[in-house]
Amino acid sequence: MPKLSKIYRLKYLKKNRLLTFFSVADRVIPADTNSPGGGSMETAAVVDWYMKRVPENIRKKILLFLDVIQFTGLFFGGNFFSSNNIQAQERQLKWMENNKIRLFRMGFFGIKTFIEMGYYTREDIWSAISYDGPVLPGRTYSDSTIRELCQNTLKISE
Fold this sequence. Notes:
Order of helices and strands: EHHHHHHHHE
Number of domains: 1
Oligomer: single chain
Helix content: 55-70%
Radius of gyration: 16 Å
Strand content: under 5%
Low-confidence stretches: none
């Protein structure tokens, strides 16, 4: 593994939101024998990097929805989402995914999309899903930071 010299500092996923993100990501993409779960600093860093590029109103809604998930955990397991057991977390997310209230469904699918994007763009995950590499291997990135995050060559800190 290469020496990590540069640091990517999270800008949006910090403290309680980061804990909530880890917990939700591990329910959306649970760990198995072939791959780690979605709740990792590497996945969070890719999502955090992307947050800067989405319109501000969308970013605010996604971050607010992480807070909603954390607090509504009180109704499903008696604790904040990140402190609830796996069964309570899964019950809560299933409730949000299938809710008659459109905002809960949209929020859930927004968070899920961000998590999946952050997870599956990481090159260290590709072998676990039997993916051989990018469709356009010679394509350059407009921002070297995302390339380094996906290759796991940056140290990540809060």
